[in-house]
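Tip: read the tokens left to right.
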């Protein structure tokens, strides 16, 4: 049987998690591998204004969420249960998801390659001067790295992919990187999935900009309209095109016959006397500069009258 203190801690944790589920509607599922306590403190402090970071055992979090859903009838949070696998935690937030994710990324720190660690990415050693003396060439020979002695130091002559993503770091690789002063890995809270209003989706969705989304929707609507018009199947996006096409057909019939309707009158008038419309446009264009010229002349005349009045006062200030 668990002790009284453990039961009290579990009840306190359950109360805290249920309170967050009640207050928030969205959160991040984050992976916390190799994140230190000091790093956690910085992350919590940076997100304190709009977000709450909650870690805990997966079994405890699942139990609390399951009981909350049963008690309240709110099954939207039940989708989190399958995502709580591995060393993960929850970041509840009321802020903009893209902004909060970028804020979490700020607290990524560099880390050395430790022996036995699974590499999260490829580690590439560029061609460079190492600054090491020739007595340490054994490290490079063990790793099949081509080198030469230049001005009393070891120089790497070509770029080498030292460690591949997913491989374990060996002792020779770790020692070499330490001697070169390279910290190839970065660790921090990594956003694994996003939960919003009952839906789980990839954080890559947050990278989609509004312009890209509008362009994609516009392309899809254009294709739907084209297919609808070709199949003579009316849809919301094809009806405007069908109406315009119908209007053009009715207008063509009206022009070819004596049938009149208000929208066709202007077209018929233009066809009867195009010169009237051609002369109206230049006249309107010329009228605008003429009006501007008259206004400018009036302004200049007003300024001249004011100057004359100042000159004809008949006395000076010293009379």
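Filled-in amino acids:
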């Amino acid at each position: 049987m668990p002790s009284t203190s453990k039961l009290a801690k579990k009840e306190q944790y359950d109360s805290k998690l249920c309170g967050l589920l009640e207050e928030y509607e969205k959160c991040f599922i984050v992976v916390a591998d190799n994140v230190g306590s000091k790093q956690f403190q910085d992350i919590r402090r940076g997100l304190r204004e709009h977000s709450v970071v909650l870690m805990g055992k997966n079994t405890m979090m699942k139990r609390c969420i399951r009981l909350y859903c049963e008690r309240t009838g709110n099954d939207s949070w039940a989708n989190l249960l399958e995502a709580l696998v591995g060393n993960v935690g929850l970041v509840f937030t009321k802020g903009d998801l893209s902004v909060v994710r970028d804020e979490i990324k700020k607290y990524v720190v560099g880390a050395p390659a430790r022996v036995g660690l699974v590499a999260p990415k490829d580690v590439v050693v560029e061609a460079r001067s190492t600054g090491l003396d020739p007595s340490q060439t054994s490290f490079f020979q063990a790793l099949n790295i081509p080198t030469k002695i230049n001005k009393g130091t070891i120089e790497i002559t070509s770029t080498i992919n030292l460690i591949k993503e997913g491989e374990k770091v060996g002792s020779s690789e770790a020692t070499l990187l330490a001697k070169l002063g390279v910290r190839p890995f970065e660790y921090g809270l990594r956003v694994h999935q996003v939960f919003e209003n009952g839906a789980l989706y990839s954080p890559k969705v947050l990278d989609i900009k509004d312009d890209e989304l509008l362009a994609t929707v516009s392309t899809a609507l254009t294709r739907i309209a084209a297919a609808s018009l070709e199949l003579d199947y009316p849809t919301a996006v094809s009806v405007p095109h069908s109406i315009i096409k119908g209007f053009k057909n009715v207008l063509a019939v009206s022009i070819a016959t004596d049938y009149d309707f208000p929208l066709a009158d202007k077209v018929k008038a233009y066809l009867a006397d195009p010169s009237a419309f051609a002369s109206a446009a230049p006249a309107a264009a010329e009228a605008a500069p003429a009006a501007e010229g008259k206004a400018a002349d009036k302004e200049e005349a007003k300024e001249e009258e004011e100057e004359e009045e100042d000159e004809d006062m008949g006395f000076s200030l010293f009379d």
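The chain has a mean pLDDT of 82. The first strand starts at residue 26 and ends at 31.
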